[in-house]
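Narrative summary of target 7.
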Amino acid sequence: MSYRIQVHPDAGTLLRTLKPHVVLRLGRALAELAESISAGGPEAEELQVDNCVLRFVIDHAHRLLEVIHIELREPLSAAYADSHA
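Modeled conformation, tokenized:
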């Protein structure tokens, strides 16, 4: 049995502002992570996809992976341009 994925309301608000292809990539990455955890794979506390970092907690008793925070980081190209202008 796989872990359920739940998104905290504050994180969900930010998710709704992202482009659909980014949300799909995040969803696929979370699904793979949940499958890995249920198979006894390694655990982490955050997941990075493109310039998004998702922080989550795992509740093994309820087989739940809860996304508690999403942070957008600036793309590397923008950070590089700013520091070398």
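Residues 20-38 form the longest helix (19 residues).
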